[in-house]
Amino acid sequence: MDEHLSPDYVKSLETKFRSDAKNLVAMNAVTSQGYQAVGLDRSFVTEAHHTFSHQIRTPKATNQKQTGRCWAFAGLNLLRLDALKSLNVEEFELSQNFMMFYDKLEKSNYFLSSIADTVDEPVDSRLSTWLLENPISDAGQWNMLVSLIDRYGVVPKSVMPETWSSSNSSSMNGVLAERLRHGAARIRQARERIDAIRAEVLEEIYRILAIHLGLPPQEFLWEWRDRNGEFHRDGLITPREFYSKHVGRDLDEYVCVIHAPTSDKPFGKCYTVDYLQNMVDGRIIRYVNLELEEMKKAAVDSVVAGEPVWFGSDTGKMFEREKGILAPEAFTYDIVFGYEDGLDKGGRLDFRHGRVTHAMIITGVDLDDSGKPLRWRVENSGGDEMGDKGSLVMSDRWFDEYVYQITVASRFLAPASAALADEEPVRLPPWDPIGALAL
Fold first, then answer.
1. Helices 96-117 & 142-152, crossing angle to 10 degrees?
2. Catalytic site residue 380?
3. Catalytic residue among 63, 109, 173, 380
């Protein structure tokens, strides 16, 4: 065919489309209902159920609302299980707003420091453009949460509850982005007094955050009644003391494992992504790239041992939201559109059609008699209306195709694989697809 689209060629496409009655049926259905509803395999959805051979008991679902805080919600949902045991209560949440405040403050400082470090870069270079396009967001990763907890600790949600802006963050983020870009312009123009400019901008950022989110407590009075009605009082306690006393999980033992089957990322190596941090002196991202079966075995062993698994996936793909089903088997798009072949998992990464978009925790797995996983129970942070009171069911095939990352304790990995996390990582550019942040 010619390079340009001639009228005759476009007309031939229409003629070919009309020649197949299935196309007309599909067009009528999709224009009325949308392709996802038309492509849904009702028999698969009807047979899907939320029963698992191994399931971790969890409290009611949390809700990140109109924000991109899934990574923090997922991590805090995992850690609150320790607090539930320590406090001996039925329901409990850690304050996501508290984490959000300090994450925004630290990300702002990290952005300004990155601008100062790249001040000699042309403003339209790929790196400068990448930094300036999204100076602040809600998105994050497991290591970012760990860095925040290391420095600031945690508090109960009742101590720093949600605000309108913590649940609806876009307008606040717009104000923050404007001040940060203005600060970036000042730093690039001044070339001197950079520390003073950064301090002035951070004072503005803190004021904006406090107005939107409230002031985070430096210490608070903590007292509660347990499930038996018994009264307890810790007295005044700091957020770091609360974590130590009522959560206490050793976050140093966790390893972030990825499955990135691309030619530029050989398995059995550790990777990091430049500028993928939220704190100047925080923990760098460390991803150990392992074969799928090894990553999956670590997830199974963790859940069977009663330990939830934080994971990152491309959650929008093959997702039936009402019943909470993540499964390629649930959709018959080949019938709707008339094609079957597509990119494999590595191809989706290479050609930017696959990345981590969302983080949740795995709290159950259904194993067959040979120990092979059939499906997984997933705790989301979208409230209790979706799926089984907020929990989703993920087919094992969906895990294979769309789960790119898990975080597990090192004891669930082979010693040699766990040790990779301590090696000097291979550095990847900030726009590498494996550097996508969960929303």
1. 100
2. yes
3. 380
